Amino acid sequence: MTTEQTSTLLLDDGHDTALVNPQQDDDETCKKLFQSMNVLSYGTITFSDNKSHQADFIRISNNVSPTLVHEFLTRYWYDGRPSLVISITGGAKEYNMKPRLLRAFRHGLLKVARTTGAWIITGGMNTGIMKLVGEIVQINPDRSRPIPLIGIATWGCVSGREHLDVRGSSVYYAKPRSNIRGEAPLEPNHTKFIFIDDGTERKYGREIAFRAQLEQAMSSGFFSSKTTTSSSNQSGNISETSFLQPENSRSYKKCFLLLANNYSFLIFNVDPVPAVLLVVEGGPNTVRTVHEAVVENNIPAVFLEGTGRCCDLFAKAFHLYNEYRRNIESDDETSVK
């Protein structure tokens, strides 16, 4: 193996090789990424509620490597990486946020998204906080710079999903007239959708673990000291290497060799991107989402106190913990005296 400034990689294991880095980003590489994810269906959605807007979508299994999906996002769907990842979770049912909180939430989200080049991630459904975020993004005054809004949803919970079982077609999506328990329509202002198909139907929350792992991959471990290791339950094993860092670029931090479905991808990992989970109201699946983000993937969470339910429960626990810690520190100081 030799390394030059072009950073090529030669393999003798029978794999086709694709070099994924900013110097070489061609259609063939994107095609191999697409094939390696075992995409079950894909296409473009035109919404009946927003005919001027179209959204690309893919459906993948829940064991696809999040790193592979991240590469697909940055190479195929978007021109590069975000400067910030804002993941928003909370109540999936309809509720009315207090006007003061709503104004603050709307103003803050728009300001941050417009000024930082952030990607916003939700569950993608046209209910609860996901619907509210879609409506906020829709009023973005700068149409020349649309805000990336990515919906990650469980395939078996999408209303009218039978119309999305296509490969490369443009689909006209109308909100179903009848409501089926365990299903919800898509929010029409999202710009991209990733559907996670684990074979279940009408079981919410099956995408939670994958979503947190993808967000961690997007952040490149900004808040984590963990190293990337091989995973046996994902279609795409990743092994970290210490070679082939381009001599003409100081932004590359690590090099990863990702093997997936007879393809090898050499991925140069650039500077980490901050990611944060924003929690608004919510129920049991919101608790699971917080656990996956904070405990399993070291992504910090911000709780919008006053929105109710589990969000206020988390906030109350935080205040109680701080009060307990202050009392302990005060007792320690007293005992020392």
From TrEMBL:
Classification via InterPro entries: TRPM (IPR050927), TRPM_SLOG (IPR041491)
GO (cellular component) term, any one: plasma membrane
GO terms for biological process, alphabetical: metal ion transport
Ranges where the TRPM SLOG domain occurs: 55-221, 271-325
Pfam families: LSDAT_euk (PF18139)
GO molecular function: monoatomic cation channel activity
Designated name of the protein: TRPM SLOG domain-containing protein
Source organism per UniProt: Rotaria sordida
